[in-house]
Design goal:
The chain is mainly α and 128 residues long. It has a domain of 88 residues: de novo design (two linked rop proteins) (Up-down Bundle), CATH 1.20.1440. It is 73% helix and 0% strand. Helix 1 runs antiparallel to helix 4 and helix 2 packs antiparallel against helix 3.
Length: 128
């Protein structure tokens, strides 16, 4: 049985999401992204939403509510992977950069799936 995290920062998926968001920020702050501010803002916002959804969900009182936020984080994770394909087509990232970001968010998505399954099994009505 998993030991319950006392704070969101203890969750490995949250830690990975923070690192991935920093990687995305480093990429979209480059000058060549100025020519595509809409895509830059979409990817930046989506990476922040992953971190935020995990954090907000952690504060929910039930496992089901937490899981709902994690589904949102998964959606934003998929969005980032799709937007990286667009960025690659627009020559804003290299293949290696696009693959690195996509791989990170694929891993995060799998971790979120595992956590969602755990929460749905436990289904505690009062997490704290």
């Amino acid at each position: 049985m998993l030991k319950p995290a006392k704070c969101v920062e203890e969750l490995a998926v949250f830690q990975k999401a923070v690192i991935a968001s920093a990687e995305v920020s480093a990429i979209i702050l480059r000058s060549d992204w100025r020519r595509d501010p809409r895509l830059r803002d979409q990817i930046g916002s989506a990476s922040e939403r992953v971190v935020s959804a995990i954090s907000e969900g952690f504060e929910q009182s039930t496992d089901r509510h937490f899981a709902q936020y994690l589904y949102r984080a998964k959606g934003s994770s998929r969005e980032i992977r799709s937007q990286m394909l667009i960025a690659l087509q627009r020559h804003l990232v290299t293949e290696a950069e696009g693959a690195s970001v996509s791989d990170r968010y694929e891993e995060i998505s799998k971790m979120l799936t595992g956590l969602i399954r755990h929460l749905e099994r436990e289904d505690r009505k009062h997490r704290r």
